[in-house]
Fold Related to DUF636 domain protein.
Amino acid sequence: MTTTVTATCACRSFTYKVDFPNTSLPFDRALCLCNSCRRISGSCGISYIAIPPDQTIDPAKFNLTAYKSSEVCTRYFCSICGAHTFAYINRSPGDHPSVAIATGIWDKTEGIIKWNGCKWVEDTLDGGLSVWFNDIVDADGTKRPLKRWMLQDRGKTEEFVPENSYRVLEKKRASDKLKAQCHCGGVKFYITRPNEASKKVQSPFPDLSHPFHSVSSANPENETWFLRDNDTKYMAGTCTCTSCRQSLGFEIQTWAFVPKCNIFKEDGSPLDFDLGTLKSYPSSEGVTREFCGKCGATVFWHCGFRPELIDVSVGLLDPEEGARVEGWLEWWTDRCSFEEMAVSRSLVTSLEDGLKKWGKARQGV
């Protein structure tokens, strides 16, 4: 007996069915938070799962771009929408490579993936997303704690993160520029602190704070909801909508909401999306996403109804600031945007619960 999973990117140019033997289920999986995975994706935590060795994927049958991210790993992403789709992993010369599919484009994961925590937490400096994943309730109702590994989650390098470490990194750097770039360096830019121009930007409220399925997003008073901490930081949040998930390739997209007037190219010129290896994908009417055409990193999201406010992938921001970049960002903790669209329900419920607890703890509630 087998369980069939269908993996599909946002533009539908990549669709592939995998048959997993039921005897192999569920797969233990930890989100990888390493610097490379964050900058290759734009997200703050990703995962792949190997398909059975008797199945394979021929990249030539799809419109894909290959990117060799290390000596042992070549990743493939959709050349049209930018979604990471699968990776070839060859750990020993001469061996047949294993093929692992990005889990965010699956049509189902409950009962198939057993999420067990986060790995490579050491790279984050501040714990990254791992501080929001405390426990999880599986599809059968079993509640269990989630783990945090310094590096790998198995083998000789397995080492757990000491309790209550990597919680906060309030590092204020002398520079008022926050550098950002994708893994290959084809897209580089920087962000400046909020200023008077930032306060003039207008935008409706986001689903993050005003769920579109239940309340209006209208912002008649033109509140600058994206400016936080006395207008010194930007709001950041998590999203699990279908479009983000299938354009990214992974379960959780992390966005920072930054006025366009505060984003500059590496040479100091204003952002105009004619930027290095940047490619555009119109994901829906009036909405455009940008990704690196060389390494596949998701970079920006912007739209016609708030053209002066840009969503920036947090995973691209300077890793020396910590993965949560709290010297520049204030995270929204009441909700994960479009959580009702999530496929990995148990994972996203764990994320939302952890965000709320973390937010209350930070406020001293």
User: Anything to note?
Assistant: The two ends are 50 Å apart (CA to CA). The chain has three helices and 23 strands. The first strand starts at residue 2 and ends at 8. The mean pLDDT is 94.
